Amino acid sequence: MRALQPDLRAVVEDAVWAPSIHNTQPWRFTLSGSRISLRADADRRLEVADPEGREMLVSCGAALFNLRLGLRAQGLEPQVTLLPDPDRPHLLADVEAVPGEDPDEYTRALHAQVRRRRSHRGGFRADPVLDPELARIRAEAEQEGARFIQAVDAHVKGALAALNNAAEHIQRRTPSYASEIARWAPAPGGRRTDGVQHGSYPRTTPWTDPHFSARDFARGRGWGADPVHTEEPPTAGVIVLLVTDTDRPADWLRAGQGLQRSLLRASQHGFAAAYHTQSLQIPGLRAFIRTHFCGDAWPQLLLRFGMPDTEVLTSVRRPLQDVLTEGP
User: Fold this and answer.
1) Are 319 and 25 in contact (CB under 8 A)?
2) What is the pTM of this model?
């Protein structure tokens, strides 16, 4: 009989390396025997930007995919029940680990990217994301019940950039948004293990065409990693919307799982993703994007894929004891 407990702790350590909005890491895990339960940590929800908890659940869905992948990398098979108890909405999934097959090459290769993957907050090199590579990235999301809609037309790209930039202007002028950003963007020199650290974003954001405004995590104080100068001007990369056919909590979890699966595949090819959630955090703009660019599918994230124009930036995660409770 396989000794499960040490393996399952390692699986949770993998799960926490999922991306999350402002690196809030809004998840908690309970380990009991061969079962891992995933819960949303509502204290870490962005009350201003994410009042319904949609992005919180997308983040938790990404952690859930890491959990499933980590189990398969251990030769275990995850049996997942999404939202198992309607009376406990923050209980997002029960995952039972049962004996499975030895991991195949695909599983091992994807699992190897879990702690290498990083979010990007700048421009991309001119190296294109080739159609076969993009097709593989897109197929990963579809395996989880989500899909990507690529912006190909220059006017669509420009419109999405303009909506993002308008939302960024609105949020910068709204004190409650600004306060929330400040809460999750600590000053250099601290010891926090969450939030957007100053080493995880560039000191200056290079201009791209079209240009997508980045969040001002430094709040005008000049924090951030030093830019890497390249001979060629940076590009915006491939612009995509991650969408689902409906817009319920289960869909948000599926979107997160599809997102993470795609991000790990992209990381295998050396690509990274930049996230632009501003326009989807303003209900009127999200509705406009849905109607005009998504064919009535529900947009969950706006991303750019490409080859990073900077060195790999840093990230932090909370220690295991802060996110894991172990039962009998």
Assistant:
1) no
2) 0.96
